[in-house]
Design goal:
about 180 residues, mainly alpha, about 75% helix, about 0% strand, elongated
């Protein structure tokens, strides 16, 4: 740990090699920690890279008498939380929507607007409703199977699906 303290002191003094040594020393452990939060290796790597960037940007505020791993893991955790919040706001939809044949530029423009509207409507659903709709519509699962997977009754699944469809239909008619 005294080596970390020396590296932090050198980093504060402007020695870029100190940052490289800290990265070499702590990157793999930090990536494992980030991956345990994000469950995606690529996002975990990006989160750790961002964490080291933030630490470098705030290097003058670092206290070399405090634990560097504590700074690092706290920063990694904050970056991961930011990433999870971003994913919640902008959920990833599975696959690409198929292109429909279009006769004119005007029809293509209208088709694109409708496609974007559908995507935004799906993204506006909460995570549970989106999973329920995708399981039923895209995966073709029966309502009884969905009910057992989501700890609901078959009737609850049917009612929620009806409400989701009504909400989506209402959203489509408002933007038509």
């Amino acid at each position: 740990m005294s080596e970390d303290r020396e590296l932090v002191a050198w980093l504060k003094a402007g020695n870029i090699n100190a940052l490289e040594q800290l990265i070499m020393r702590w990157r793999s452990q930090a990536e494992e920690y980030a991956n345990s939060i994000l469950h995606d290796h690529q996002y975990a790597e990006d989160a750790v890279q961002e964490a080291f960037s933030r630490i470098y940007a705030a290097r003058m505020a670092l206290d070399e008498n405090r634990s560097f791993p504590a700074y690092l893991y706290t920063t990694v955790k904050r970056v991961c939380i930011d990433e999870l919040r971003k994913k919640k706001r902008f959920p990833e939809l599975p696959g690409e929507l198929p292109e429909l044949p279009v006769d004119s530029a005007e029809e293509e423009y209208i088709s694109r607007l409708e496609q974007l509207n559908r995507i935004h409507l799906l993204a506006s659903l909460d995570e549970a409703d989106r999973q329920l709709l995708l399981a039923f519509s895209l995966e073709g699962k029966p309502t009884k199977q969905i009910a057992s997977e989501m700890n609901m009754s078959d009737g609850q699944v049917r009612i929620r699906l009806h409400r989701i469809r009504r909400k989506l239909k209402k959203g489509m008619s408002e933007h038509a």
